[in-house]
Amino acid sequence: MQILAVCGVKNSGKTTLLEKITAHLSKEGIKIAVIKHDGHSFVPDRPGTDSFRLKAAGAYGAAVFSSQCFSIVKDIDPPVTEADLISFFPEADLILLEGFKNSPYPKIEIVRRGVSRTPVSNPDGLKRCGRHLPPDPGNSPADLAAGGHSDFRLMYSAFSLE
Molybdopterin-guanine dinucleotide biosynthesis protein B (MobB) domain spans which residues (predicted)? Predict the structure, then answer.
C-alpha cells in the first residue's frame, strides 16, 4: 500500500486533482481509497435518515450497512488519526489523503495565485509544490487536473506506483 497526501488551501483544486487522479488510476485497475480531512465541523449524515435520528436521540455512534458497503458515524475522543483511518483500507493499493498538510506522508501541494498566499505544508515529505498557477480559464483546477499545464505533470509525477 502506498500513501500520498494532496495539500493546499481551500479552493486550491485539491478535490478536483484527486478526482482526476482517482478516475485515471482506477481505470488502470488500481484500488484507491481517499481520506479527506475537514478542518471544520461537518455533518456526516442527513436529517431524516434512521441513523441520523438515532444519533440525535443520544447514541454516541450509529452504523448502517448492506451487502455492498457500510457507514459508521461515531463521536470521537481522542481525535482519530490518519493511521486509524488508513487501517480501514487494508486492501487498497493506494490511499490518497486530502489535506493532512502536517503529516509525514509523501505529499504534493497546490499553491495558486489569487487563492493561496504561501505554501502551508510541512516540508517533511513534500515531493512537489505546484506554485503560482494563475486562476485564469486556462489554469482552472479542472484544466490542471486534465494535464494541460506543465506544473500539473510535475505534481502528478511526484509519486510513482512502481
Answer: 3-119
Confidence of residue 128 (pLDDT cuts 50, 70, 90): low
Give the Cα separation of 102 and 120 in Å (integer). 9
Q: CB–CB of 95/2 below 8 Å? A: yes
For the CA atoms of 141, 146, 148, 150, the dihedral, rounded to the nearest 10 degrees, stands at 80
C-alpha–C-alpha distance, residues 85 and 123, integer Å = 23
What pLDDT, on a 0 to 100 scale, did the predictor assign at position 162? 34
Q: What digits encode the pLDDT tens for the residues 36-58?
A: 988 777 777 889 888 889 999 99
Residue 124's CATH number: 3.40.50.300
| Rounded-to-integer distance, Cα 22 and Cα 69, Å | 19
Tell me the longest C-alpha to C-alpha distance in the chain: 52
| Location of C-alpha cell 497526501 | 5
Q: Is residue 124 part of a domain?
A: yes
Residue 59 lies in a domain: no
Burial of 117 (0-12, 13-18, 19+ CB in 10 A): exposed
User: The pTM is what?
Assistant: 0.73
Q: Range of 143's domain?
A: 2-40+80-156
Decide: 7 and 110 in contact? Cβ < 8 Å: yes
